[in-house]
Fold:
Amino acid sequence: MTGETILVFSEEPDAVLGLVATARSALAGTPGRVEAAMLGDGAAARAGGADRLYRLLLPEGARHDPSVAAAALQQVVDLAAPRLILVASTKRGRETAARLAGVIDAAVTTGVSSVALEADGVRIHREVLSGNAIGEEVLLGPNPIVAVMSSAPTGGSPAAAPTEVTDVPIEPGPARITLVERTVKPAGGLRIESAERIVSVGRGLRKKEDLALIQELARAMGAVVGCTRPIAAEAGWLSDDHWIGLTGHRVKPRLYVAIGISGAVQHLVGMRESTIVVAVNKDANAPIFAQSDYTIAGDLYAVVPALVRALTGT
Amino acid sequence: MPGPIRSWVAVKHGVDVVLARAERATGNVAMDRAPRKTSDFDRNAVEEAVRIREKFGGKVTALTVGPPTAKEALRDALAIGADDAVLISDPARPELDGRGVAQALAAYGRKHPEFDLWFFGEGSTDHFTGTIGPRVAAALGAPSLSYGRRVTVDDGAVVVDREYERELERVRAAFPAIVTVGQEINQPRVPTFMSTLKASKKEIRAVGPADLGVDGAEWAPTTRRERVFVPEVARKRQALAGADVAASAHMLLEALRAEGVLP
Structure:
């Protein structure tokens, strides 16, 4: 009983667990194997119930050069002859996937939300048009590479037999990219992805000092403050932790209050999974109104203080 | 002080995500008939290459892969400040998938290995796989430095600052190198009437597989695009308008409490 092999890879042990579960569900009960390639001791692959673990013995500090991981994975692909390669659609994951696709000449795609094996290829769904639409595609040819969006690990199901282990040593080539500096972002900062309520602000805000208004409303609602790209990346009034959108953070709060946000497509994709959306905007024709449950057409400088007064009873 | 720098910039004439509409009956977007425009991040890539030329001298070449209509993206790049432009087309295959585009660009890079820096947008506005730059780099055996938000040029090398989910990095690579950039890197200049006029008069060099010494078979698609559809978003779209702003505020809070999303 051999069946097909799905190879999963991530540099992040946390992601491996989820990828193994995704691979299992793609196999849908057929007698296939899930094999995991990862760095470190491989505990996550074992916990997830991978049938085989390829331990990539990467040279220390090679993470900044995606060609190193791609070269390691190229060896694993030769060994495992996988029907499909799954990686996590993180920034590094996408980079490694693309590099690997270049070396093994395979189809590759990223940002994938569903994956299924079919007779002639691998059927996937992914976000397209800056998140406004879903694309359905079939990847053809040998060893297609699919980078999947993170899914909550489901705990995994231990393999019937213990995980086999293969060590993959990597010959360090000449360093093409040197790491000058790495700074780990401070942990324990704002985790806007897990916020229950968000009060978010856009270009309608006239000056940085007026953020106090928004912060006051957020406090009164028990919400955290979010913003659009112009407020974070362009004006620098709020740090990137607050930025919601295509290249910022994706959020799904129960309540999303959009203040002075017109609703550019790149912003909408970041908040479209919110349960209830409220928009406050001077312009009743702003695109955000069509994407909202409750709307108030009015000047935020009048509406926000009125909301604060109504909430605090002052 | 670095000498003149030869920069290439890959640009895409992609589907305009604002103007693309789903057909009412099916929810499908007819991608082949949708309006097109130059992909947003590619403008940042052109701007960055032009700024480097303004500082150190050299030349900026814009390249695109697609049918003749994709020249529009090259005109945009020329209007921002690129010096010349190349259209890579295969009449047998007007639309290539990501692999085909990467193969075509790599074929050009192999035939004319004359760049110091090759810029790409971090991803395209329409498909955003973010794979073309690193994939071309892999095919050419060049280093790829992705997600640049600040690029500086050192003597014969490029230094890139970039951000990952959990960390910030500064990396350095000798020329030739492939760099992808995000929106944060700069604010692309808006072409003037004069620069647009000048761009419209520049010659665009068109090359096909034969000019690059390949037969084009390696550009064949490995992706079958079945459909693009807009998922139904059911929002209530209830406009609240009380007698005055205080009344509207009360109506909203009442509604939110009824929804159970506000204590």
Remarks:
- Chain B touches chain A through 81 residues (CB under 8 Å).
- Chain B has two domains: 5-219, 235-263.
- The radius of gyration of chain B is 22 Å.
